[in-house]
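Dear colleague,

Following up on Tuesday's group meeting, I ran the structure prediction for the two-component complex that the binding team flagged. I've pasted the input sequences exactly as they went in, so you can double-check that nothing got truncated or mislabelled along the way. The structure tokens for the whole assembly follow below. Feel free to forward this to whoever is handling the docking comparison.

Inputs:
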Amino acid sequence: MRYAETGYNLEIDLTRGSYDRVESDVVDTELYLGGLGTNAKIMWDRVPPETEPFSEDNLLIFSAGLLCGTPATGCNRTIITTLSPQTELMCFSMMGGFLAPEIKYAGYDKIILSGKSKDLVYIWINNDKVEIRDASHLKGKGAIETSKIICEELNEPKAQVAAIGAAGENRVYFASIEQGRSSASRGGIGAVMGDKGVKAIVVRGTKDINLAEPDRYFDLCYEVMDYIRFRNENPIPNVMPILAGLGSPQEMKVHDEKWHTENFMWGNSRVRRRDFWNEEIAKDWEETMNSMQRRLISCYNCPMTCGATIQPPGMDTYMMKCFSKLTYTMAAFSDLEFGLGIAQAATEHGVDGFSAPQVMAFALELLEAGILKPEDFPGLPEENEGRFYYLLDMIVNRKGIGNILANGTYWAAKEIGNGAEEYAHNNIKKIEQLPLKLGMMNPVYFLMYSTGEKMNITQIEGQFPQAPFATVEEREAFVKDWIQVPDDKFKDYLMKWEFRGEFSNPYYPTIDMCCEIVDWMEMMHYIDDALGMCAGLSSFPLKPPYHIHNYPKFIEAGSGIPMDEEKLTKAVKRYRTLVRANNIRRGMRRADEKPPENHWKKRFPEYEAELLSAYYKFKGWNDDGIPTEESLRDLGLGYVADEFLAKGILKAGADAPQESASE
Amino acid sequence: MAKKTKTVKSIKVNADLCNGCRACEMACSAFHSEPKYSSNNPARSRISVIRRPLEDIYVPVYAGEYTPAECLGRNSYILDGKEYKECEFCRASCPSRGDFKEPDSGLPLKCDMCESIPALDEPLCVKWCMVGALEYEEREVEVDEEEEQPKVSEMELGLEHLVDKFGLHKVAESVARLTKKED
């Protein structure tokens, strides 16, 4: 018997219209855990490097994490893996909600889509029964609307639905997959779903998920629940409110937006408005939020209430969380009422809440600069907010200029030419980033931005404070119950960190310390993505209830696989390296690993190069960011080493730096 | 008439606080799994959260008595402008719907307040509801001794359902056959 996992994947071949329930290898679980880890293995084994994102050979994997469906609080994430049309690399966007546990209860760990359907279909998975059904009546329908219609026509109110809107159907490069209160948005995975002709995946499961050591597992759960209560009652002092508590950033509860509105950039990530926030705006925005918000809500088996149901006047209710609260508002230099309204339309269409507003602001900047012409925007409203609704419609339906903009700022700028590239200035690896432009280069963030393969800073940062504490007393208070550190040396690093002088950015934390800090932060995210744990209770907030010391116990008591910190650390390193191997095989190199040029005003090119080389070495990669033969074999990834050697990506016996392919 | 005291156990449901996370369903099914806590499956739960987020409807409902026949008439309710569907609040395991039945056998489920030895401090759904939507209360009341009904055991409840489904004769025959096998 398999514990925590079901031991089966559901394979669906859309070209042939067939499906199969396939037993997975328990050895793979031990080596790669599950979720992202085993997804990366499947991508390596089955998707050859020359595969195009929009091809029958690309896979779209919906994976529950290893511990989804077990009683672990907050373990509900679906990890979706495919080749991204935007980055042309392997991407893995995640979402919370209710889908992953339902997939488990239906008897599967993963749903793997291959091939393409000629006609628009939806897939109805009711335990062992799988139907590929006609979805022509859902064409062009909103993602949330689609969920509602399907649940009604199947008469299955408890089924969970993941659907795309018009953006996904039209293969918009930043289309999302929406699932009620959650969405998997980054990398254009919704476009791949649309390309495969799948409007929605609908799941209902009524089977058991078993635990290897039930009593021990429940005790671990109770420890976590007690710690959540403790943290809710004891927010971390001396940090901004958004970083003080647990959960996905509590944007639905926190009304004070001084920090975001004055520190993040407006428009096409251009303008900082340092004196924006005042009492009048505070009052106005709080009233707006209170008038539209109906209830704070949670994902499956989680008390954190990070999301909310929002009903803008005259529009349907939708669900929102986190920073998409402000991305449209700030891109359009508008107010919260506009932002919450257009987000409703954007959610139904199914677009990424970071990329979509930036693409629209980018288009208007190009118009202002004369690079795009008024005739490119027939019927463009005079009024600012109206222009954003207009552009959203053009993009999701790929009408006129929208057909180019739908490919994101990087590809659109390339196609438009005439200097447009300068305006696609906020990308890493071709994908739009948070609108942040800062002063002094931060070495920890430099490494995270450069080497992150989840393409979003929020998906790698977390465990180490973003800034030093002002006084020694504050630092002591912070480190005294910092149980989450893998090693006490991290406490020393923090104790010495200052705002100014010798022990401040960019030269402190030192290069060695930066490597360890970034490696730790990244490791926690990768564990979450294999187990299906929400980053909001683990890798993202300071002092979370899940950490490197209790995770091995959860895995062992849940799945029955013997686990300790060392073995877990090595497993994470293994599948993290395999994610990189997938991308190296597709051509990613050192030259691709850099933050936007204007991310910081004060840059240190030579020191940054030194940092990056040191981090690569620390990770077991060569100076071009390619995992070395030695480190691959040490991790049991000899099959990767063999392919790299055969293809000349690595040279035999020489773990010396290679010529960069993309420089 | 002789009086005696009995303990009434109740769970106060504050639907306004429900966040729709269904931890209660998970915990309930784990507690009632065999061996205890060894598995979970919300479809086997004796509490069900009616959850329709877009209509702002969140109501945890507990499984009550099994009924062999559905009601003659039905009600729907509109409260605070929200429409609750027919039977939505009803606790019965009833032929009209799939709720509160074992997914494999179709046998009825009923909340037993997690009675067990040793006793829990509170039913497990309450323990797992960290947003405070479920609150456990006990109170002593005086009742007439004769009016006290003997408790219908879970097994009898199941048998009753089988009798309704297949008829007493067939069930008796099966029991007799099983008895023979045991011998």
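The interface with chain A takes residues 19-23, 26-27, 30, 33, 35-44, 52-56, 58, 103, 128, 130-131 of chain B (CB under 8 Å).

Cheers,
M.
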